[in-house]
Design a protein that fits this description.
This protein has nine helices and twelve strands. The chain is α/β, with parallel strands linked by helices and about 260 residues long. The chain folds into two domains: about 1-110 and about 225-255, NAD(P)-binding Rossmann-like Domain (Rossmann fold, 3-Layer(aba) Sandwich), CATH 3.40.50.720; about 115-220, Dihydrodipicolinate Reductase, domain 2. The chain has a seven-stranded parallel beta sheet, sandwiched between helices. The site of nicotinamide-adenine-dinucleotide (NAD) has 23 residues, from helix 1 and helix 3.
């Protein structure tokens, strides 16, 4: 039985993790990290703690859906007390990504900006389409609920990296994430990533390839957050016995 620790348990995805884990084969919830108190009931056998060290010691693997600063604290502690980590938090800074890479030399870490099977496949399709449709303009639009804090979404940024990789481009040199004013014509290589926010949209991503005379759009819509929580549990099951290293959701789903 794999003992799972949940970091970010009171959040939108975290709460679903606590529910879904009850039905997950070979896994049980052992610890939950909280900053204050949990405002809902939980099985009394689960350790609920604000002590990071105790939280890590009580589990075999951690699943994190929190905020970048919180994820950073988790990584710093995990470097001292290594533990397999499934990280779903998005909006990580370059420093936090470097810390994640450093930590992955000591423990297995699966980092995915989107835990769904559909988006994992979409990334592959975007790479292929980008390479095949040379000369088509690439524009990405993402839509999320109004409470989302980071923009563009981690998923949209990963999709833009797949699109850039398909053409051998460096995404940091070609990404545009806002247009306003008299900015001139679109340049050939630019890849736009635009963010819309509103209501309770779980997550919608459209990657469009536009040419004169035709366009193609690849679209993914998440209709329930449980696609992320269940995906993270599947990832945890897969990661638990892996060697130290940095893994992707494609590794877990064997999509390569
Ligand atoms: P949320 O705001 O509902 O929850 C955030 C959680 O983090 C809460 O439990 C909060 O208490 C906790 N937290 C905040 N600051 C903390 C701190 N300093 N220390 C410890 N815990 C802290 O957010 P959400 O919608 O559940 O999303 C969480 C993260 O997961 C976001 O970054 C979001 O973009 C990302 N996300 C990823 C995927 C994926 O598939 N990878 C899917 C959905 C959301």
């Amino acid at each position: 039985m794999i003992k799972v620790g949940v970091f970010g348990a009171s959040g939108r995805v975290g709460r679903l993790l606590l529910e879904n884990i009850k039905d997950a084969e070979g896994m049980s919830l052992s610890s939950v990290y909280v900053r204050n108190n949990l405002d809902f009931a939980i099985d009394p056998s689960v350790l609920v703690t604000s002590e990071m060290k105790a939280f890590l010691s009580a589990c075999d693997i951690v699943i994190d859906f929190s905020l970048p600063e919180a994820c950073e604290t988790l990584l710093e502690q995990a470097i001292k007390t290594p533990k397999p980590l499934v990280i779903g938090t998005t909006g990580l800074s370059q420093h936090q990504l470097n810390l994640l890479k450093q930590a992955s030399e000591m423990m297995p870490i699966l980092y995915a900006t989107n835990m769904s099977l559909g988006v994992a496949l979409l990334n592959k399709l975007v790479y292929q389409a980008s390479a095949a449709l040379a000369g088509f303009d690439i524009e990405i639009v993402e839509m999320h609920h109004k409470h989302k804090k980071d923009a563009p979404s981690g998923t949209a940024l990963t999709l833009s990296q797949s699109a850039a990789a398909g053409r051998g481009l460096d995404i940091d040199k070609v990404r545009v994430s806002g247009r306003d004013g008299n900015i001139g014509e679109r340049s050939e290589d630019e890849i736009a990533v635009m963010a819309l926010r509103g209501g309770d949209i779980v997550g919608r991503h459209t990657v469009g390839f536009y040419n004169e005379g035709e366009f193609i759009e690849l679209n993914h819509t998440a209709t329930s957050r449980s696609t992320f929580s269940k995906g993270a549990l599947r990832a945890a099951q897969w990661l638990a016995d892996k060697e130290a290293g940095l893994y992707s959701i494609s590794d877990c789903l064997e999509l390569d």
